[in-house]
Amino acid sequence: MDQLPIFMNLQGEHCLVVGGNAVAARKAELLKKANADVTLVTRELEGEAYRMVADGYLEWRDATFQRRYLDCVRLVIATTDDEDEARRVYNACIERGIPVNVADVPTMCTFILPGIVDRSPMTIAVSTGARSPVLARLVRRRLESLIPPSYGRLTTLLERFREKAKRCIEGVDNRQRFWEAVIEGPIGNMAMAGREKQAAAALDERLENRITEPDTGEVYLIGAGPGAVDLLTNQAQRLLSAADIVVYDRLVSPAIVDLARREAERIYVGKTAGQHALDQQAISQLLVDKARQGCRVARLKGGDPFIFGRGGEELEAIVQADIDFQIAPGVTAASGCASYAGIPLTHRDHAHSVRFITGHRHNGLLQLPWFDLARCSDTLVFYMGLGSLPEICSGLVDHGREPTTPAVVVEQGTTANQRVIRATLADLDQQVADVRPPALLIVGEVARLSRRFAWFAGDREQSAFMPGYCIDGRGPHDPTQATIGRHDDEDSVTTV
Ligand code: SAH
Residues annotated as region Uroporphyrinogen-III C-methyltransferase (predicted)? Predict the structure, then answer.
């Protein structure tokens, strides 16, 4: 370690920024955030620095740097372009033992300004020892997205009870165990979800009863998205990596299950060959039992748990058992597949709204509000519709939708195996014989745009449509390319 990271208390301390450019304004702002008393020393004030002085936010000395300005000064940052002035600032500070940072000149810095993730009162600082400010910035951005602003709320709560914990719980080890259980358990999650009052009450009760052991468990209902790992939300990742047990379905991609801790127990409850590994009631019971044993249970579901995901049924059991829970939404198949197939679901020139419909047969029957679906101008998205696809297409046409209405099937959307089959209601069913689940059917004028807006090609689709793809967005125009079905440019099915 080249430098020791420390956090400096500058409350009410006098600090100088030598310079009046945009960098000076940024550094001054930073010092003000730490409640320092800041003066700019410069003959010329530019843009933001000028505004800050005009607003009375900063003091300004209209002068070049003088040694005597350092009286009573605690810290100095120089951003001046004048090398000679920068050197004078540095030498004078060294002489007086005042911490100094000359921007972009590592040899004239006695301290470094790190990249900062501000989750006040929590602050995270990142430094590469001035070797690569850009790398520090990138790492900082990653941390920003990993550590939500709600950590600030959590920190404030923990601070409030710190003294009381010292009084109630004896021994450093016990206190450490206590705080870990609080931060990683339901109390921490409650605070981060904005329920600070409830969290404070629960924390107080724990302290009064001197409970240092982890709480009863929790269940995290997590949407794993349609397949691509990078569609997982940060919230989902955070909860998944905290879990002791992961209960997952068939549609959850293995790469996402892999993100759980190595020691976490993994339980598969998906369907195989038409059979549930566990029926719905048994799954709900499993979640309840494991949470009661004190485990943090991640219930991973494909897409979004509340969209054809039976999330509501499982929650019912969890609530009834009075178990704490959190819900992390996921990218539902309709959003994921539409984006990855280039279909703006509610493009206002073509659709007023979008409907998510299940094409699943109930007791062998497909009961849908046909007239309504056929006559409306909505985009229709059918989940679980592969087995009923011919019936859905003909049902819509029989009840009044134009046979030429664009209809697209997205197979294994967002994954490397994605394939998009573009057709119309009249001819789609001839193209889907080899399609394997999961697959989504999107019907409506917006689906016509799928060729124009195509951008993602799974490994299987690549060979089918990339050769003719032209960068101006008009889509494939290779005359040798095989097309089946309708032969106008926009709607033809592109298969090999
Ligand atoms: N909760 C899930 C849906 C579960 S129902 C969600 O929000 O997405 C299962 C149906 O979702 C499948 O039959 C299929 O129609 C659709 N589906 C899920 N993932 C898909 C994917 N990657 N590609 C295409 N369709 C998908």
Answer: 217-496
- Is pLDDT at 82 greater than 60 in this prediction? yes
Using only C-alpha atoms, the chain has a radius of gyration, in whole angstroms, of: 30
For residue 343, give both structure tokens: 């279909």
Give me the helix-helix angle, 133-146 and 234-242, nearest 10°: 70
Q: Residue 382 is which amino acid?
A: F
Catalytic (active site) residue 429: no
Confidence category of residue 172, pLDDT binned at 50, 70, 90: confident
Helix axes 172-184, 196-208, angle to 10 degrees: 150
307 is in an annotated binding site: yes
Query: Cα(467)–Cα(423) distance, rounded to whole angstroms?
Result: 19
What would the pLDDT profile of 401-453 be if each residue is shown by its tens digit? 999 999 999 999 999 999 999 999 999 999 999 999 999 999 999 999 999 99
Which of 81, 271, 459, 489 does the annotation list as catalytic? 271
- How remote is the CA of residue 27 from the centroid of ligand 1, in Å? 49
Q: What is the pLDDT of residue 108?
A: 96
Q: How far is CA 111 from CA 39, 101, 104, 141, 286, in A?
A: 19, 6, 12, 22, 54
Distance from C-alpha of 170 to C-alpha of 277, rounded to nearest angstrom? 48
Model confidence, pTM: 0.70
Cis peptide before 476 (omega within 30 of 0): no
- Protein residue whose Cα sits closest to atom 25 of ligand 1: 439
Give me the chain's average pLDDT, please.
88
Given a cut of 90, whether residue 461 has pLDDT beyond it is: no
Tell me the pLDDT tens digit for each residue of 316-365: 999 999 999 999 999 999 999 999 999 999 999 999 999 999 999 888 88
Between CA 456 and CA 406 the distance in angstroms is 20
Return the best residue to mutate from 231, 250, 308 for the ligand 1 pocket (most ligand atoms within 8 A of CB): 308
H helix or E strand, kind and range, residue 129:
none
pLDDT value for 303: 97
Query: Angle of helix 196-208 relative to helix 150-160, nearest 10 degrees?
Result: 30
DSSP string, 353-392: -EEEEE---BTTB----HHHHHHS--EEEEES-GGGHHHH
Cα 144 off chain centre by: 11
Nearest to 304 by CA among 347, 282, 348, 335: 335
CA 313 from centre of chain: 26
Locate the ligand 1 atom nearest the alpha carbon of residue 382 and give its number. Answer: 15
The per-residue pLDDT for range 478-491, each reduced to its tens digit, is 333 322 222 222 22
